[in-house]
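Let's practice the habit of predicting before peeking. Look at the sequence and jot down your guess about where helices and strands might fall. Then scroll down.
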Amino acid sequence: MSEPLREIPPAIYIGDTATIAITDERFQASDGWTMELRFAGGELVTLSGSASGSTHTFTIAADTFDSASVGGIEWTLLASRTVPQAERCVAGSGRSTIKADPAAVAEAPGVVTTHAERMLAAIEAALEQRALSADQRSYTIDGRSLERMTPSELSAWRAVYRNQVQTEAILSAKGIDRAPMKVRSRFA
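Done guessing? Here is the structure:
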């Protein structure tokens, strides 16, 4: 059996079993502290820890999450005790990504891609198709008209989506499932 993890992982794969041993000197089992690890995304999943000294161990079983859980998920580590008085506090919180079972993805037809990857592929296919054919930019049939993007417009969109795909790849390598949102405000 492998060594337990020392922190909540940034990515949890469906079908994997993981043991997480959290050590926090503030929450000694001998002082009556227990811990729960809660995952909130689609459905709330609560894991109770087994305690030994200041270490609380949690097991994520292979069937803890299912394919409906794929995506970003918030986790909260709650410490509580009833003696000498009732107390509860958040010992930690963060974000993880539930990822599809690699074995199931390999068996499924097609490839799992992001919106940016699909758009980049579509734009590149449109550019290639235009380069290989005598495609018209616009035409009208029975009063209905169609106007296509110019190659320079497609190239500009390709740059946007290439950048987004590269950003996703960097964030994924760091265990982050998406870029933080930018909030812009203007005060009068």
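How did you do? The mean pLDDT is 82.
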